[in-house]
Amino acid sequence: MTSPALDASPPLGLLDLFGDGFVRDPHPWLDTLRAQAPVRHDPGTGLWLVSRHQDVLRVLLDPDAFRPDNAQHAVTPLPVAALRVLARSGFRLAPALANNGTASHPGLRRLVTRFFHARRVAAAVPVIERVADELLGTAQEQLDASGGCDLFPSFAQILPCRVLMELLGIDGVSPATLIRWSDASLELFWGRPAPQRQLELAALVAEFHQWLTRAVTDGAASPGSFLASLAAHRLPDGEPLDVHTAVGACFFVFIAGQSTTGQLIATVLRLALAEPGLWSRLADEPGLAEAWVEEVLRREPPVTTWRRVTARPVELGGVELPGGAQLLLMLMGSGSDPEVFSAPEDMCPHRADVRRHLAFGAGRHRCPGASLARTEAAVALRTAARRLPDIRTAAAEYAPMLGLLSFRAPLRVAVERP
Ligand code: HEM
Q1: Rounded to whole angstroms, how far apart are CA atoms 68 and 245?
Q2: What stretch of H or E contains 108?
């Protein structure tokens, strides 16, 4: 999944953010954007692509000039039929977390942060290890029986969902259902689905929304759970949260807390298996799994882009942007900016400045789940290397890729015993 040496820059006029070429290997395009057109209007999506590390960081650190309001807008406009399906379920994405530039954001963010701060994550390590071990036990049985298995559905995808359910006290729904709802939401709002597919996805998102609304309003949340904390939350004016805002917060946390981490684990596993000599060292070498995860976050992050909108006319990277310009921050490209990272195309675990990557954003909206995501991915990698020391990527494996506007990862991690 790394780019070959560049002989020629790909012509930016052919750039298609959803096209197979870009999804399979975005790096040649990202390199060209940074070098030739660091702030460039993309006619396919109407978004301004911002690709240099310093410009991306400037935008993230100035939420007054670059607002987060468009973070969850559907990039492919929804047809009336799909909008009707959503409206019938009462669906409305009120500003809550990632899309909230109002005064209610800091309090809601504090609420979320309480559930995912470093101490709580450290205490969750035994839970992560237990679930990882259980899932890998099943994968091992499958390997014993058939000689191969796919670690994406059986492990990478399900581990973060199970952990999130335990940490937030979510019950009354199966992990498979939560994953289906979450993936449908990503595809509907960040994908380029055809109209018929949009209808199917809208039906799933509507189901998800109705379930969340019931969970938020039925008063049955167990004490100390995330839902109970939302119910007890007070806004700056002392009022409780309205239902739409509470559902909006849950919607984002439930999606962000599992799909993205599953995508990270899939990439981490695939790249580790492809790196000569690495797998056998991961089981016992202290800090190596953590360092590998960090390097993957820099070079191949699961959240490849994030959106902002200009509050007023503003200059960025030498380009005059009008007010209301929709920006697409190329987080993935910023992690390979040679102005910040030397030899960015090389995977160098333990590189000194790796934490300067922007895979989790920066500033007021920086991902509050970063510590959980890092820990889960490192535990997943180490446990897999210990439990399955003798696996390799299945021969002739060609993994299909998830290629949404902001999310990219392999959808299969097929492995076999040599
Ligand atoms: C590898 C996994 C993950 C990645 C790459 C990731 C990335 C991101 C990014 C890029 C943002 C936007 C940052 C910004 O606007 O500056 C974000 C926001 C957010 N993430 Fe994550 N995330 C991950 C996992 C998680 C997890 C595990 C959780 C929760 C358990 C979570 C919860 C959130 C929330 C609530 C926000 C919005 C914060 C706010 O607006 O204040 N994320 N994440």
Answers
A1: 16
A2: helix 105-116
Q: Kindly give the distance from the C-alpha atom of residue 257 to the centroid of ligand 1, in angstroms, as a whole number.
A: 8
Residues with CB under 6 A from ligand 1: 60, 68, 97-98, 109, 112, 116, 252-253, 256-257, 260-261, 264, 301-303, 306, 359-363, 365-369, 372-373
Query: Which ligand 1 atom sits nearest the alpha carbon of residue 109?
Result: 41
The atom of ligand 1 lying closest to the CA of 160 is 27
Could you tell me the distance, in angstroms and rounded to a whole number, from the CA of residue 249 to the centre of ligand 1?
A: 12
Helix (H) or strand (E) holding 314: strand 314-316
Which ligand 1 atom is nearest residue 60's CA? 16
Rounded distance from Cα 254 to ligand 1 centre (Å): 11
Entry pTM: 0.96
Using CA atoms, how far apart are residues 138 and 100, in angstroms rounded to an integer?
Answer: 41
Is there a domain that residue 8 lies in? no
Query: Residue 226: which domain range?
Result: 15-416
CATH number for 257? 1.10.630.10
Task: Give the other-Cβ count within 10 Å of 364's Cβ.
Answer: 16
Flag whether 1 is in a domain: no
Phi and psi angles of residue 175, each rounded to the nearest 5 degrees, phi first? -55, -40
The region, left, alpha or beta by phi > 0 then psi within -120 to 50, assigned to residue 90 is left
pLDDT digits (tens), the chain, 418 positions: 444 444 578 999 999 999 999 999 999 999 999 999 999 999 999 999 999 999 999 999 999 999 999 999 999 999 999 999 999 999 988 899 999 999 999 999 999 999 999 999 999 999 999 999 999 999 999 999 999 999 999 999 999 999 999 888 888 899 999 999 999 999 999 999 999 999 999 999 999 999 999 998 987 888 888 999 998 999 999 999 999 999 999 999 999 999 999 999 999 999 999 999 999 999 999 999 999 999 999 999 999 999 999 999 999 999 999 999 999 999 999 999 999 999 999 999 999 999 999 999 999 999 999 999 999 999 999 999 999 999 999 987 778 999 999 999 999 999 999 8
Backbone angles phi, psi at 408, to 5 degrees: -145, 130
Tokens 């789940």, residue located: 369
Would you say residue 241 lies in a domain? yes
Number of domains in the chain: 1
Ligand 1, atom 41, lies closest to the CA of 365
Q: Is residue 9 part of a domain?
A: no
Nearest ligand 1 atom to the CA of 264 is 1
